[in-house]
Amino acid sequence: MAETVAALAPPPTAAVHTEERRHLGMRRFARNRAAVAGGLVLCVLVLVAIFADPIGRVDPLSIDLAAARTGPSAAHPFGVDRVGRDVFSRVVHASRVSLSVGIGAVLIFTSIGVVLGAAAGFYGGWVDSLVLRFADIVLAFPAILIVLVAVSLTGPGLTQLILLLGLVGWPHIARLVRGQLLSLRELDFVTAARALGVSNFRLIVRHILPNTVGVIVVAATFGVASTILAEAALSFLGMGVQPPTPSWGNMLSDAQSISVLNSLPWLWMPPGLAIFITILAINFLGDGLRDALDPRSKPV
Amino acid sequence: MARYIIRRLLVAVPVLVGITIINYVLLNAAPGSAVDSLVDPLAGPLARQIAEKQLGLDQPAYIRYLYWVGELLHGNLGYSYIDYRPVAVRIGERVLPTLALVGTGFLLAYVTGTALGVVSALRPYSRTDYASTFVGLIGISIPGFFLGLATIYIFALRIPLFPTGGMLTTGAPFTIPDFMAHLALPVAALMLFDTASLMRYTRASMLEVLGQDYIRTATSKGISHRVVVMRHALRNALNPLITLVGLSIPRLLGGAVIIETVFQWPGMGRLAVDSIMQRDYPVLMGLNLIIATLVIVGSLVADIMYSVADPRIRYG
After folding, report:
1. What residues contact residue A56 under an 8 Å CB cut-off, 6+ apart?
2. Range of the domain at B140
3. CB neighbours of B282 closer than 8 A, spacing ≥ 6?
4. Residue A152's pLDDT is what?
5. Nearest by CB: A153 against B29, B137, B288
6. Partners of B86 in the beta sheet?
7. Omega cis (within 30) before A244
8. Torsion of CA B291, B294, B299, B300, to 10 degrees
9. Is residue B160 helix, strand or coil?
């Protein structure tokens, strides 16, 4: 599929000066109020994660048995869970898990994807087939299953989760970068650079890849959203971040019991809404970035 | 075309073999063994040895893999470690519930998603468009398990319209209305994401097509707006959606892990989760093989349908 789409898409214009283009993109982005709002929400979220201790007020692991199962109050804005922990503090601290998984795993799979995709698209031939088949294999695994199995292999934990999600996420980026390189490498400026004796490595890194930054940034932004969702889903199934460490996903898994779902809604609504707002903000930001940096592409 | 299909199928064979090997290595490296859940932990080491021998776990891994492949070629997926029933039977009984759930969800999502996408593209930047774009963003942002829990909370607990989970009322005879009542909430929770993403996709694709020169040409020839939209624009805009249909084939069977868990739906996704928990590796190998095959077939079907719908695309 990647071949056909790449073949149909018009070649990216490299004629516009990068500098000019960047300003154009920034102006287009600033006009998109929803995207700016999404970006602001994410900034707030990062601050919450950094200053989780003062904001959460109490230790997310400290237990106040007397208050267990009580609803929202002045002392506990989001109520108290079944063993007596403050839900507000837990939701605030769990933002650290989501953000570190989202950012960490995306950094890993974007790097892998860019390197493999650039090599495949630039060199073609057997390098290309090898990368594509490898991507096929990774894609053909139901992602959640491979992570589930791998987690049982490495043991659950934050670092393992970041590495695993990082190792399975790259094929999408690799295909994208490969498609871009297939058309970019045919353009005149590449021939010109070659004629000047620029080495292949320098040609890819300094001349070609800068033209794909917009596309990569957009894909990575949506990647952060899907990675945070994957972490939450795994923790929800009990195979991600392990209690007592709070994660939005594992906080929701308590609600699988109908009695908790019914009578203690403050246990599962705040973390659920936290995931929802985070993902919504990232998607708004991603849409805005796409319109600004990569106007031709379609939503994923 | 025939040559292209044959070549793609031939390439698929090493990919499948690679997948089963990686699978096998991973499952073998995982700590714990099916023996743990079969043998009383208080029983002596002899009981464990007997159980291991019965399951063939005393053989080295590569021998077991070759044995598995040999049986596979004879159409035997092996036997569950947990209840000793054939893997094919255990998976087979889960196929229909999953197909009913995911199939219904997909069908509804495709119809409503494309319809909404076309409607917003026809009036871009109107109130309808902003509203459905906003709802679309919400739809792709809400996690399935949270949506599932919230729908159970609202429509089964606060307003008891639907059952909280399961596929049929336990003990009651099978009736269509009972089945439909159980199906309603999980389908709703499942289809929101697909409806939203299809809507976004259709809208973008339709807007792109409506800006093309041939649409202006058709309009300037005096063809009515309706005909231009339905005949000229829609057909071209929906081409990329065909690819999406092919690519979502594997999800028909494997894609509802979370929703099936939340709603206690007896489908393949839950079978996978349960098998991982119980370390029932033969069942997991079978499931992964089936899903991997569907991924490969699905992407091939997508490419073929794409070239049928758009004759400009040729495969050599």
Report:
1. A86, A88, A89, A90, A92, A93
2. 96-263
3. B68, B77, B78, B79, B80, B81, B87
4. 67
5. B29
6. B79
7. yes
8. 150
9. coil
| Interface membership of B201 toward A (CB under 8 Å) | yes
| Domain total in chain B | 1
3-state SS, one letter per residue, for chain A: CHHHHHHHCCCCCCCCCHHHHHHHHHHHHHHCHHHHHHHHHHHHHHHHHHCHHHHHCCCCCCCCHHHCCCCCCCCCCCCECCCCCEHHHHHHHHHHHHHHHHHHHHHHHHHHHHHHHHHHHHHCHHHHHHHHHHHHHHHHCCHHHHHHHHHHHHCCCHHHHHHHHHHHCHHHHHHHHHHHHHHHCCCHHHHHHHHCCCCHHHHHHHHHHHHHHHHHHHHHHHHHHHHHHHHHHHHHCCCCCCCCCCCHHHHHHHHHCHHHHHHCHHHHHHHHHHHHHHHHHHHHHHHHHHHHHCCCCCCC
With respect to residue B11, please indicate whether it lies within any of the assigned structural domains: no
Q: Identify the CATH number of the domain in which residue B208 sits.
A: 1.10.3720.10
Q: What is the pLDDT of residues A87-103, one digit of tens each?
A: 999 999 999 999 999 99
**DSSP single-letter state for residue B154:** I
* C-alpha A227 chain-centroid distance: 5
Nearest chain A residue to B249, by CA = A140
Contact B18/A at CB under 8 A = yes
For A:233-262, CB contacts with B below 8 A are 233, 236-237, 239, 249, 252, 255-256, 258, 261-262
Rounded Cα distance, A227 and A104, in Å? 10
Amino acid identity, position B146: F
B169 found inside a domain: yes
pLDDT bucket at A22, cuts 50 / 70 / 90: low
Contact flag B143-A256 (C-beta cutoff 8 Å): no
Q: Does B284 sit within 8 Å of A233, measured CB to CB?
A: no
Nearest to A239 by CA among B257, B154, B66, B163: B257
Tokens (6 digits) for A182:
């297939």
Which residues in chain A have Cβ-Cβ distances shorter than 8 Å to B311? Answer: none
**Residue at B70 is within a domain:** no
Q: Does the interface ipTM go beyond 0.90? A: no
CA distance B208 to B237: 8
Residue B147 lies in a domain: yes
The Cβ of residue B22 has, within 10 Å, a number of other Cβ atoms equal to 15
Minimal C-alpha gap between A69 and chain B (Å) = 18
- Which of A140, A150, A252 is the closest to B15 by Cβ? A140
Task: Tell me what the mean pLDDT of segment B24-30 comes to.
Answer: 75
Q: Which of B30, B24, B36 is nearest to B278 (CA)?
A: B36
- pLDDT of residue A5 exceeding 70, the answer is no
The total number of residues shown for chain B amounts to 316
Contact B19 A137 (CB under 8 A): yes
Per-residue pLDDT at A210 exceeds 60: yes
Q: What is the mean pLDDT of residues B52-64?
A: 80
Chain A residues with CB-CB distance to B25 below 8 A: none
Per the CB < 8 A criterion, the answer to whether A104 and A166 are in contact is yes
What is this structure's pTM?
A: 0.84
Amino acid letter, B7: R
pLDDT digits (tens, 9 = 90+) for A135-186: 877 876 666 666 766 776 677 778 888 988 898 889 989 988 998 888 888 8
Structure tokens at B146: 């949270």
Q: How far is CA B40 from the centre of its chain?
A: 37
